[in-house]
Fold this sequence. Notes:
By secondary structure, this protein is of the alpha+beta class. The chain has three domains: about 75-85 and about 210-330, Efflux pump adaptor protein, beta barrel domain (Elongation Factor Tu (Ef-tu), domain 3, Beta Barrel), CATH 2.40.30; about 90-120 and about 175-205, CATH 2.40.50.100; about 120-170. Helices cover about 30% and strands about 30% of the residues. It is built from seven helices and 17 strands. It has helices at about 30-35, 50-70, 125-145, 150-170, 255-260, 315-320, 320-330, and strands at about 75-85, 90-95, 100-105, 110, 115-120, 175, 180-185, 195, 200-205, 210-215, 230-235, 240-245, 250, 275-285, 290, 295, 305-315. The strands form four sheets. The protein has a seven-stranded antiparallel β-sheet. Strands 2-9-7-4 form a four-stranded antiparallel β-sheet, with no helix packed on it. The longest helix is centred in the middle third of the chain and has 23 residues, at about 125-145. The chain is rod-shaped, with a radius of gyration of 48 Å.
Amino acid sequence: MRPSTETTSPRDREAPDGTPLGSALFRDRARRAAETPRHEGDLLRLSPSWARSVYWVLLGMSLLLIVGGLVGRSREFASGPAVLRVGNGLRLTALAAGTVERLDVIAGEHVVAGQSLVQFHSEDERNVLSHLQTEFDLHLVHLLREPGDKMARNTLAGLRAQRKLAEARLAERTLVAPTEGWVQDVRIRPGQRLAAGETVVSLVARQEQHTLMAFLPGEFRPLLKVGQPLNLIPVGYPHSRIRMSVESVQEEVVTAQAALAPLGVEWQNAIQLQGSVTVVTATLPATTFQADGQERPLYSGMQGKVEVCVREQAILLTLIPGLESLVERFRN
Length: 332
């Protein structure tokens, strides 16, 4: 009997589970495995997981610094010493050298025009005047007895002129108030020797305000103008600020000696200035200031330091000077 040559086609074969193999192109198990979603992993991880967080933090900080540099402002200040004055302060000086004999007023006292303020030693002037008066009286009696004596008449005329001169010199030994006001500052004491031109007392009007005279470096003159904010820091009160505005700016840049001249010779050693300076004045908003939580009065002659903002620009332009030229080109 010849063996059968028929072969079973793949379509007729069955899988171990009894499913015909020819019913589908792919096996169900393979198909289900292909259809199941899978998460493919990274091929290569070169940086740790925290690097991404650091990146975003640094990016945020960089943006914050850029915005801060554009919004924030950088300020440059002109600073220098200053002295406080009450009004214009009419300074009365000694007309001639002498020694103080008596003070007729005290600080804060109200005086009227012609009132005696200070009396200097005048014994020599009184003796000269007394001698001239006696000699004048004798010649006057002689002239009355002999009206025709021309020599006596000429001598009497000369004595009259000398007497007037002696009276004027005696009057110089008494300092009187030229106008009504209040005694602001008494800088002398009995027995003190004064030279001609030295300040004796100061008079002010009650309604006059406190003014400030500040001395700033001359190189800042082109940047100074009326209306700029000005801060005064009184000496001894570093945490106190008195805010005001520039009221006037001296047109010229002068030497330190010329700048201090309006204050008198006694201030030339009290305020140390170097190089050329320009003078700035301002009016204080009040006669007191806040210090250590208390209201404290301001006095004429008090010194301090002033700060005037002369230049202001974005912080970013200050840190990167080249950007300023680019901004100027863009504006033009």
